[in-house]
Amino acid sequence: MSVRPASVGTFLRAAPPDRLPEVVAQHLRTWFPVDDVELFLSDLTMTALWPVIDPDAAAGGPLAQRCFGSQQPVTDNGTGTVLLPLTTWGDRLGVLYIRFTSTPERETLAELASVADELAIALRAADKDTDRYRQVARRQRLTMAAELQWELLPGRSLGGERFRLAGQLDPAYAMYGDHYDWSVTDDRLTLTVLNGDGDGIEAALLTTVAVNAMRNARRSGANIVEQSELASDAVYSRYGGKSHLATLLLEIDLTGGAVEAVDAGSPKALIAREGGIRPVSLEQQLPLGMFGDSRYETQKFQLEPGDRLLVVSDGVHAATPGGKPPYGDSGLLSALRRTRLQPPTEAVGTVIRALRDYHAGAEAADDAVIVCLDWLRRTA
C-alpha cells in the first residue's frame, strides 16, 4: 500500500517554477478524495482573485474573497468546498480552492493547511524565475514607470508576533515616483515612504536610485541618518539638485515601541489610538538630493501597545481634485476611522478606495502611497 508523503514541499522544490499549481493539484487528487483544484492569485489592486490553472474560469467568488480578506480557512459543507489562504510572512498571495467528493475530516483540513503553506512559500521563491504568476495578477499592461516600481517593492504586507504591516500604491498600473520600502531585522523595523519628483519613467528612475542607495547603506549596518545622507548624496550626484525626493524614514523598536524618524519632506505620519487619530509632529528637513552634502538628524516619538501608525504620501493628504479642500483635512480622517476594525491589509485598500471616491472621476494629479502598521499588544 502506498504511503502518503509527509509533505508536498519535496515535489514543489523538484518542479519547474511555472508548474507549481499543477504539482499541488496532482498531489491532492492522488492522496485525497478531491474533485477539483484551483489556485487564485490577487490582482495588483487587491480587489479580485484570478484563476491560474484554468485562466478562462471565473474570478474567485465571495467565499474566496472572504478567505483572502480574513486570512482564515473557509469551508462550504454543502458543496464540499475548502478554501485556504496562501500567505508568506504576512504577505497575502491568493487562495487555494479545493472541492471534495465528500465532506473532509478535520484532520484532513490540518493537512491541507500545510499544503497551502508549502505552496505559498514555493510561489514566493518561484516569482523571480517565471512570469506566469505575474501575468495572472496583471489585468492590463503596466507603464514602464510602474514596472520599475513594482520590481522595487518589498512586498504588499508583512507580519510577525508583534506587528502587522501593509502598503498600497495607486494607480497600480500607471504610478510614477511614490514608493515605500521596509525591512525587519531582530527587533527593528525600518520603514520608508517616498514622494518621487517628476513624472513617468524619470520619476521611477529617481526613486530607484534613492531606494537602492538606502538599501545599500542599511544592508551595511548604517542607521537611518546614514541611509538618508547616502541616498541624498547619490541623488545629488546624479541630478545635481534638479530633482529630489521628499522622504520619511522610520526605525521602530518592536520591543518597546520607540520610533526614530528622519523627516526629509512631505509624507505624513498619523497615529490612531483608542478611537482618536492625531498627526505625528516632526520638524521637516530638506528633501533627499536637493543640495550636496546634506546632513540629517533624527527625531523621536513613542508608540503604545495597540497603536496604529499610518504614513501617507502627498498624493493622499494633499490631493485637491477639482479644487476641493485637501483630502487630508477631513476626508482622510473619515476614511481612517472606517478602518478601525480592519487589519492593515484591508485598511490600506479602504483608504485608497475612499481617495478615488473623493476624486469623483477626476484624474489624480499625483500617485498615492499609504502604509499601515499595527504595533500589537505585548503578551506575557
Automatic annotation (TrEMBL):
Chain ranges of the PPM-type phosphatase domain: 165-375
Domain of life assignment: Bacteria
Gene3D superfamilies: PPM-type phosphatase domain
Keywords (A to Z) from UniProt: Hydrolase
Pfam families: SpoIIE (PF07228)
Name used for this protein in its record: Serine/threonine-protein phosphatase
Species in which this protein is naturally found: Paractinoplanes hotanensis
